[in-house]
Amino acid sequence: MEAATLKDIARELNISVSTVSRALRDSYEINPETKRLVMECATRLNYRPNPIALSLKGSSSKALAVVVPQIANYYFSQAINGIEEVAQQRGYDVIIFQTHETYEREVAALRQALARRVDGLLISLSSETSTVAHLQEFQQHAPIVQFDRVSSQLATPRVVADNFAGAYAATEHLIKTGRRRIAHLTIQPWLSITQERLAGYRAALEQNCLAYDETLVRFGTFGPNEVGPLVDELLALQPPPDAFFTASDRLAVGCLAALRQRRLRIPADVSLIGFTNLTVADMLAPALSTVEQPATDIGREAVARLLDIIERKHRAAPPATVTMPTALHVRESTSLMDLTP
Amino acid sequence: MEAATLKDIARELNISVSTVSRALRDSYEINPETKRLVMECATRLNYRPNPIALSLKGSSSKALAVVVPQIANYYFSQAINGIEEVAQQRGYDVIIFQTHETYEREVAALRQALARRVDGLLISLSSETSTVAHLQEFQQHAPIVQFDRVSSQLATPRVVADNFAGAYAATEHLIKTGRRRIAHLTIQPWLSITQERLAGYRAALEQNCLAYDETLVRFGTFGPNEVGPLVDELLALQPPPDAFFTASDRLAVGCLAALRQRRLRIPADVSLIGFTNLTVADMLAPALSTVEQPATDIGREAVARLLDIIERKHRAAPPATVTMPTALHVRESTSLMDLTP
DNA sequence: TTTATTTGCGCAATCGTTGTCGGTAACGTT
DNA sequence: AACGTTACCGACAACGATTGCGCAAATAAA
Fold it and tell me: Sorted alphabetically, which CDD domains does this protein's record hold (chains A, B) (predicted)?
């Protein structure tokens, strides 16, 4: 059973294809009786408009592109979950691209998305991306909404977690539990989220009369075996840090592993808090304090914005930034400092 | 800058569209010199064939559909990672659908996929799915490869983990560490993976002269708060279980939480092993023994099979089953039984 | 009755690409 | 000189849907 087309209906009813098309779109210039016949026949033949033909015709492809650095990542898989949910609800399909954190693959992904004539793009920038010419080029064809890793050079709506507030809360919490030398392990310095978190961290320090010490802050793209050496470096400082604040899932887990490997007691020797979406955070040893980002909601919100632009044809979209609240979860890894020697 | 089309090249060179088309496809009936000109012009205009037009023409859409119950799931996000990687390498885009474990959304997803004229389908069945008519229907249009949750009623290649061996190894390991009353928490009984794991569990028991006790086996779709009561039920048995073997990520974590909440010592009172893809398994408290499935490899293998069928046009694909080895990771949660009272 | 106007529908172009067919030279063969 | 080959290229239709335009018939207004 092949998919029914307008032509099939037209043949069946001995009318022209154009009449069928108009009847289905409820055009005023079609006889109500004819409409009824066409509708009936369409449901009988289980007619569905061919999205490919529609795309070619140039109207809309009913498909969205999602470009993220990685799928196999707690944060992004949750975000995509939210995106797919809302998109599907509103009749759009989602095409996924991974950049694996490279600029090159990001460009390739955009090219693909363009070729597919997607109606819009949701993107979280790769860590290599520092220019946005490729995105501006894309923007001339379809609207973009950025989420999580966003660039301010690009005029689009942005949906992000409240990174400043989250980092501020985490840092302040560490200070209130008696920590004074707080190391911050974070990702590439040019990313918006890195800067915002760093700013929050710094603001909390200064609000609490602690000096900002840049030797305590480390940036990087930390592979599986790169966190250990870094932790060693930090621990060699005088005085050594008494707390670690990490900026991603990978870093939190890597740091936890490194600290445990080095037989440091958490939180007795150092405390640890992460910016993560680990659902198992409270099952870790020790239970990991975290700043949780509403990843699913960020996905939902981002795609909702995008679809509003697409459907209301607000081409000149308000490049507003939506900030979603983060939540501080205090667990064992940041208990009060043990002051007994 | 709009995307260049054949027409643009044709106009530029004052030749016909068909000639351009053939020149680019390196047809024998085009003058080498003309070909050169066309090629040069094509690269200059940055021409890319329009996949939409190609799809409409009926040849191939260069897109694959992936249908999974959930994206935000350690196992599936890793599998999709593998799928996307290989697909992208071989020039195919991936369209993702989530069924949220419902038959209805699975049918809807297949309909969408069909409308998009995808060249093939990778599917892991929803837990509600018991009939495969919708898949057979789909099969008449494009090839299917099943992975993980597969149905034997459907003649397609299948790529799965070695569930029997994995479950056997886990169970045997529990027995060798002194356990005798091994509970098995698993998912819906009609799923292939459930049955295979159950069979492996049972075989290991019987090989070791332990009776299979069906009151120790529980099936279900365990929501966030459903694991607790179940654990209570099992612990009320006489004698109570001294080990838990769970069949999924969610169950392993849920069970761990429930046991800890009830102040049972792991592994002193009970030991616990999961069938999971948790990357943080050895960071949990206690470090969780697991049977690890090669999710990424399963994804890679499945998509490779599918693309082979698509490209070699082996429509009558060998419905072979590829079994990928699992790995037993012994950690703290299944240490030797403590025999001191 | 003649002229407007409305109603209802079909024709044909369009989107980008490919396949079928046919045509025109230039050449070689008798 | 007449014919067949070969090499090369263009016109056209088709995929499925939308849309501007035109055309006929029916109705309304003159």
Answer: HTH_LacI, PBP1_LacI_sugar_binding-like
Reported confidence tier of residue B313, pLDDT bands at 50, 70, 90: low
Render pLDDT for A172-205 as a digit per residue (tens, 0 to 9).
999 999 999 999 999 989 888 999 999 999 999 9
Q: Which CATH number do you get for residue A93?
A: 3.40.50.2300
Q: Which domain holds residue A117?
A: 63-160+295-324
Within a domain: B341 = no
Tokens of B38: 């066309």
**Residue A53, CA: closest nucleotide via C1'?**
D16
Give tens-digit pLDDT for A227-245. Answer: 889 999 999 998 999 999 9
**Residue recorded with tokens 């400082």:** A237
The helix or strand, by DSSP H or E, that contains position A96, with its residue range, turns out to be: strand A93-98
- Is B299 found in the same domain as B153? yes
- Please tell me the distance in Å from B284's CA to the nearest CA on chain A: 4
Contacts of B76 (CB under 8 A, 6+ apart): B68, B69, B70, B124, B295
| Residue A10 Cα, gap to closest chain B Cα (Å) | 20
pLDDT tens profile B239-258: 999 999 999 888 999 999 99
Cβ of A56 near strand D (distance < 7 A): yes
What is the percent of chain B with per-residue pLDDT over 70, rounded to a whole number?
Answer: 96
Same domain, A198 and A174: yes
Count of domains in chain A? 3
* Residues in chain A closer than 8 A to B70 (CB atoms): 81
